[in-house]
Design brief:
By secondary structure, the chain is α/β, with parallel strands linked by helices. The chain folds into 3 domains: about 160 residues, Nucleoside Triphosphate Pyrophosphohydrolase; about 220 residues, Ribonuclease Z/Hydroxyacylglutathione hydrolase-like (Metallo-beta-lactamase, Chain A, 4-Layer Sandwich), CATH 3.60.15.10; about 80 residues, no CATH class. The protein is about 30% helix and about 20% strand. It has a 7-stranded mixed β-sheet with strand order 9-10-11-13-14-15-16. A 6-stranded mixed β-sheet has the order 12-17-18-19-20-21, with no helix packed on it. A 4-stranded mixed β-sheet has the order 4-1-6-5, with helices on both faces. A hairpin with an 8-residue loop joins strand 18 and strand 19. Helix 10 crosses helix 12 and helix 11 packs across helix 12. The protein is globular, with a radius of gyration of 25 Å. The two termini are about 30 Å apart.
Length: about 500
């Protein structure tokens, strides 16, 4: 069930076209000198507040998909918003409804749907705090499309609720049944159902079709591929291939397809692209292509390894080496909007699983994380879950989590754990046992990383540890997860199924 938000467009009665933005509250600091040295720039967006239904038992959405604001406590939400911008409590303001936007189902939590209303205000004689600023359409678009890295940023509410309605409509359209988010301008993110791992159920299809926003800023740069549109990771399952077909049909024929890595939930729609646009150019790392079946893509491809430049409608995209999740994992950076597509290096919620069966490597993962921090993007776009508006904070959180896990793994080994199961069960004691199988993939890579750093205690037997990484681990996991009475009824077919699940990570 969705939750709701009220976003307020405060228009300046004294200066036509101006509206009020305020800085968003950043995530808490880590209380760590290294991590807290990475600061995300200010994020400016429309003021907003939670919108609470007056009656939790009634559905506040009409049959046509419109919101009925009479069923919400709008006055309380509006009062909170106006307090955010320094207006005294108790003031009454007339508002007009502008639009209602349903968030795409990024998951794993419920979508946050937003009602946008307009309040007109005469700022003459009124003093606003420093964290508020009047802006116009042109200045916002300049910040979004021409800002320098590290400068102030414009948030998604003002883009989705206001700016996208004012800018020129794109020549192509997404299928009406497919919910998506366009943020920043020219970057469309649409979660589509896929064969991914829980808690997620979708993979984000990312579409670059900049159109009128693009300018010829490439200069003498040599491009590995040139097109009018680009899609990343068409990984939806067969149930959603019809919608993917409609997306492909609406895009320009000069299409680039970029695959971050080979997992099924990122390539299951490649055959649709190949069928309905056989002239599309596929870009992928050679290690990724070795694992993609002919049934998904039988035509030639252009290999990338990081450092290449792609031109999409005159817009420059840099290919970023993002090894770690797999040995062919790639990212993509849009220099115009400072958007960084990170594949499965990060996910919208929780931590990422590295694939030890496909060249996943913890040293590479740390190196990629620092590379992303050096890029200093304005927004991170993962292939699962929502966009992240605090990229440096998120990346530092991943570093902290990985280092914490590695320390707990080393502690388990120093405490006598010798097998993969013993190490996993101790280091991930705070995690549901059903997740220990994917967690064991990360444990393997952490043990390798510790060995590379010569941190493993001398009494630790690598031979004994490696012997415990096969069927023996699954048997111990089944015993712990199901209990001794149920283990006796588990067939080897069930064990094989667990192995298949593990290999697909």
């Amino acid at each position: 069930m969705a939750t709701y938000k009220l976003a307020v467009i405060i228009e300046n009665q004294s200066k036509d076209g101006d509206f009020l933005l305020h800085t968003q509250t950043p995530p808490p600091k880590f209380d760590d000198k290294e991590y807290d040295s990475y600061l995300d720039p200010d994020l400016w967006d429309l003021p907003s507040a939670e919108l609470t239904p007056l009656d939790q038992t009634r559905v506040p959405i009409r049959a046509g998909g419109d919101i009925d604001l009479r069923l919400f406590d709008v006055d309380s939400a509006l009062e909170k918003v106006l307090e955010q911008v320094g207006c005294g409590s108790g003031e009454k303001w007339k508002w007009d409804f502008r639009k209602y936007v349903e968030e795409a189902s990024f998951g794993p939590g419920p979508p946050v749907n937003t009602a946008f209303v307009v309040v007109k205000m005469a700022p003459d004689g009124r003093s606003f705090p420093d964290f508020c600023m009047w802006m116009c359409f042109e200045s916002c678009m300049k910040w979004l499309l021409d800002a320098e890295p590290g400068s102030g940023r414009i948030g998604p509410l003002v883009v989705v609720g206001y700016l996208n309605d004012l800018k020129q409509a794109p020549k192509w359209k997404m299928p009406p049944t497919l919910r998506f988010q366009e943020y920043p301008p020219g970057v469309v993110v649409a979660p589509m159902g896929s064969r991914t791992l829980k808690p997620f159920t979708t993979t984000n299809l990312v579409v670059f079709a900049p159109g009128h926003d693009a300018v010829g800023d490439l200069g003498a740069v040599e491009c590995i591929a040139t097109g009018e549109a680009l899609i990343l990771d068409p990984g939806c399952c067969s149930k959603y291939h019809k919608e993917l077909e409609q997306v492909i049909a609406s895009l320009p024929r000069k299409l680039i397809v970029f695959v971050t890595h080979h997992h099924h939930d990122h390539v299951d729609g490649l055959s649709v692209v190949q069928k309905f646009n056989p002239d599309a150019i596929l870009l992928a790392h050679e290690n990724t292509m070795r694992r993609i079946g002919k049934g998904d893509w039988s035509r030639s491809y252009t290999p990338v390894s990081g450092g290449e430049v792609i031109s999409i409608g005159g817009r420059k995209l840099n290919v970023i080496s993002a090894l770690g999740h797999t040995d062919g994992h790639m990212g993509l950076y849009d220099l115009k909007t400072h958007s960084l597509i990170v594949g499965d290096h990060c996910v919208g919620q929780g931590s990422a699983v590295l694939d030890s069966k496909s060249g996943g490597n913890m040293s590479d993962y740390f190196e990629t994380t620092y590379r992303f921090l050096d890029i200093a993007p304005s927004v991170l776009i993962p292939m699962h879950g929502r966009l992240n508006l605090w990229p440096k904070n998120m990346l530092c959180g991943y570093l902290k989590n990985r280092r914490h896990r590695e320390a707990s793994i080393l502690k388990a080994i120093e405490g006598g754990a010798q097998t993969l199961f013993d190490i996993t069960s101790r280091a991930y004691a705070d995690v549901d046992k059903k997740l220990w199988i994917p967690a064991s993939s990360n444990v393997k890579l952490h043990v390798e990383h510790l060995a590379q750093q010569n941190k493993l205690p001398p009494e630790f037997s690598m031979q004994k540890y490696l012997q415990s990484c096969g069927v023996w681990f699954y048997l111990q996991w089944l015993w712990a997860y199901l209990g001794p009475k149920k283990v006796a009824g588990v067939t080897m077919a069930g064990i094989a199924a667990s192995s298949v699940l593990y290999k697909s990570l």
